[in-house]
Amino acid sequence: MPLLELDGVAMVFGGLTALHDLHLRVEPGELVGIIGPNGAGKTTVFNVITGVYRPTRGRIRFLDADLTGLPPAEITRRGIARTFQNIRLFPELTVLDNILVAHHFRAGYGLLQAVFRGPRFAAEERRMRDEAMELLRLVRLEGRAGQPAGSLPYGEQRRLEIARALATRPRLLLLDEPAAGMNPAEGRELMQFIRWIRERFDLTILLIEHHMPVVMGVCQRIVVLNFGRVIAEGTPDQIRTNPQVIEAYLGEQEEAG
Ligand SMILES: Nc1ncnc2c1ncn2[C@@H]1O[C@H](COP(=O)(O)OP(=O)(O)OP(=O)(O)O)[C@@H](O)[C@H]1O
């Protein structure tokens, strides 16, 4: 049974069809890349999966339940977390507090406990702090815990953003261009990190990425979108040599490069 399944998903914005009849299956434990030229619909795929947009047509199933039309917070609670193309940390908050914000999301106390700071609240707060520090240790940011997130070097902010997504304990992690703005060495390091978290947290990962070497190096399977349609799907080797892909995407990169 697939972990995630998009069945005939379409997304229409006014007169523009961003996604046409999209079918996508992701098996548990897979690391799947989504590539395609600018405006192909990649981020829109993430936005319909995470409930930012309700698809115009089609269904989205996750863990054998129908997610279509659920609000984003409920989708996070069911085990899907994401990062964004542009880093969206709280720059003035400390590194630790950025993680705690995500932990509070699944806190085991109600509003009354939080307002009156009952014993359950204190115990829960301690537990969440410990867990957050443990997560920071795993991603090698524990030395930064007290610093404002905005003061971290770019690569560490990316890692913190991924750690914050992990704090919601996802089964499925959606990464939107995590290597954007990185040099090739930083990109390679990030990919090793992504492979490592997949093992460590038993994750399934969907990854949007423009950096070809990054995608080819890390993904088992690649889905290529163009004008909101899947034009190819396969292993990195199959994609690298697919004439339609070369025409739609790799050719474009060569021209740009
Ligand atoms: N909220 C929206 N309203 C109107 N049009 C939108 C909206 N969101 C996306 N689009 C359009 O849908 C198409 C697909 O956009 P999307 O951001 O998914 O592409 P992308 O493949 O992620 O591109 P990029 O690589 O540039 O990030 C684009 O033509 C875009 O302008």
TrEMBL record:
GO molecular function list: ATP binding; ATP hydrolysis activity; L-isoleucine transmembrane transporter activity; L-phenylalanine transmembrane transporter activity; L-valine transmembrane transporter activity
Pfam families documented for this protein: ABC_tran, BCA_ABC_TP_C
All copies of domain ABC transporter, residue ranges: 4-252
Gene Ontology biological process terms in this record: D-alanine transmembrane transport; L-alanine transport; L-isoleucine import across plasma membrane; L-valine import across plasma membrane
GO CC terms, sorted: plasma membrane
Keywords, ordered alphabetically: ATP-binding, Nucleotide-binding, Transport
Organism domain of life: Bacteria
Protein name per Swiss-Prot or TrEMBL: Amino acid/amide ABC transporter ATP-binding protein 1, HAAT family
Organism: Thermaerobacter subterraneus DSM 13965
